[in-house]
Write a structure and sequence with these properties.
Strand order of the largest sheet: 1-3-2
Oligomer: single chain
Structural class: mainly alpha
Order of helices and strands: HHHEHHEEHH
Strand content: 5-15%
Radius of gyration: 24 Å
CATH architecture: Orthogonal Bundle
CATH topology: Arc Repressor Mutant, subunit A
Number of strands: 3
Number of domains: 1
CATH superfamily: Winged helix-like DNA-binding domain superfamily/Winged helix DNA-binding domain
Length: 166
Amino acid sequence: MGKKSKAEKKAKALKKKHHDIVADAPDLASVLVQAARSMRTVLSRNLLESGLYAGQDGVMLALAENDGLTAGMLAAKLGVKAPTMTRTIGRMEAQGFVERRADDDDARLTKVYLTATGRDRLQLIAEAGRASEEMATRGLTEKQMKTLMKLLRAVDANLQGTGLEE
């Protein structure tokens, strides 16, 4: 049990170097993903009293902005797969938040509309969003908030390939 071979020393040095590179690398992706997950968890918790589940708030807000969208349009707008949206709409319909109706111009199309019950939940969604945002930004100044928003929009634009021009 004496000396380590040259190969063992080299392997250990390479392992240490790799570890140092990984430890020092800025890990933007994991920080962004974790922050988004935490925000979603808090928002979901804040939405519970309104009877909504994760993701349903986005459907409600999209329909509040433009009522009468197809499931495919909603899926594209919210960045989810069509089967996921179809299940979400079915659940929301059973809860009384939305209804499906045949399109007036093209009966082959089914469009989704907010019900009166759904519209009544919009204020609760807004309040849950504000409470979540206040929690997320606690301790940040107004200037820091504006900078954060600007930077996140730039990152998003870069990732979507649209890039923001300064």
